[in-house]
Amino acid sequence: MIDPTPNETAAMVEGGKAGGAYLDSLGRTDLALLTEDEWDAFVEVIVTGYCDHLRDQAAKDRARLDGMIPEVPF
């Protein structure tokens, strides 16, 4: 990723944590030893963690931005 935003950087950290937790649940650290199904699940966990975090951040940003909009006076 070129020039990630702060939200993207935070999402990468969260996706990485989710991937690490998945590997911990398998008791594995060597990615080469994962089965094809385990690899697929590992990638899915990382991507899901990344996307979920970005959605959470977007919702917070949206709420903050909406709070800056003055109400229409009529």
Description:
The chain has helices at 6-26, 36-68. It is an all-alpha fold and 74 residues long. The mean pLDDT is 90. The N and C termini lie far apart (45 Å). It has one domain (6-65). Helix 1 (6-26) packs antiparallel against helix 2 (36-68). The longest helix has 33 residues, at 36-68. The chain contains two helices and no strands.
Kindly list the characteristics that best describe this protein:
single chain, 74 residues, mainly alpha, 2 helices, 0% strand, elongated
Compact overview of the structure:
This protein is mainly α and 74 residues long.
Number of continuous helical runs: 2
CA-atom Rg in angstroms: 18 Å
What general outline do the C-alpha atoms trace? elongated
Largest sheet: none
SSE succession? HH
Q: Which secondary-structure class do the elements indicate?
A: mainly alpha
**Global mean pLDDT:** 90
Annotation, overall tally of beta strands: 0
Pfam families: DUF6511
InterPro entries: DUF6511 (IPR045422)
Describe the secondary structure blueprint for this structure.
Layout: H1 6-26, H2 36-68
Helix pairs in contact: 1-2
